[in-house]
Amino acid sequence: MNKKKLVWQLPFLLLLIVGTVLIIRQQRAMPYQANSGMIFGTVYNISYECDSDYHQAIKAELLKVDNSLSPFNEKSIITAINQNKDVQPDEMFLTVFKKAMEVSRETGGAFDITVAPLVNAWGFGFKNGIQPDRHQVDSLRQLIGYEKVTLKDGRIVKQLPDIMLDCSAIAKGFGSDVVAHLLRQHGVKNFMVEIGGEVVTSGVNPQRLPWRIGVTKPTDDSLSVRGEIQSVLNVTDMAMATSGNYRNFYYKGGKKYAHTIDPQTGYPVQHSLLSATVLAKDCATADAYATSFMVLGIDGAKKILERHPELMAYFIYVDDKGQNAVWCSPSLKDKIVE
Length: 338
Hints:
two-stranded antiparallel ribbon, 338 residues, single chain
């Protein structure tokens, strides 16, 4: 009786083995597409395992994000809102706006999409290069505050017409999420999406290993031409974003001014945190919190992390001896490769 059962089972076992071998061979034979280009004033690089090249569809999705959220796009929705036109925000804008408001509340206003006038006044954004005096800073602060902007009946309502919205600190992360969603819709399981340093990964890389993403070492290299790596992290099925004062700054009167503006004070931040890398389930969240942590500094950031165990962070800061030091979430330590 057992011999008869075995005879009947053997063909099924053989079929299962052959099928498994064929699937593995197909996975190994399937190529990885490599797409790159420019969007949001920065470079994107996308790698994904698929027989088809979806670059045109990817570009179309990124253009939608640009048409919704770019303040440098004269026809974008955010530009129309800043010009006080009666415009119906699209789903992308509403998604980012709601996420921005959520992170603003969680960080006590350290993240604030109304901070653009101060950013511009300090010589960033539109690069006017004129350092503001105290009177100008105090005047501009009247236009700053996420509580001064609300969503009502599907429209953005501003308390003052001169309030400007700028989603630059979350748009790259959101764009990475959009591309990742597109790839998943097409059944792609193994991919890495990177837009201006903001990353979303899934599955494995072409070597069938977890995706490894480098954290840039803080240097006085505003053009990021050297790109030395501080650490490498195993990042799979997660999103990662980095914000750092070393990436964008200028000197004036012998003083270094960082690109991170504290919405509460109106001035560039002055503390020991050099860069903040955040890992989260989605890149828009990681992007927004990375910016927030650069405003809060390492102590303030740790308090936020205590309330949000779903987030992981990797901080590079200057210690009491003036040397670069690293702190990371305990849950992130097993992801550090080198």
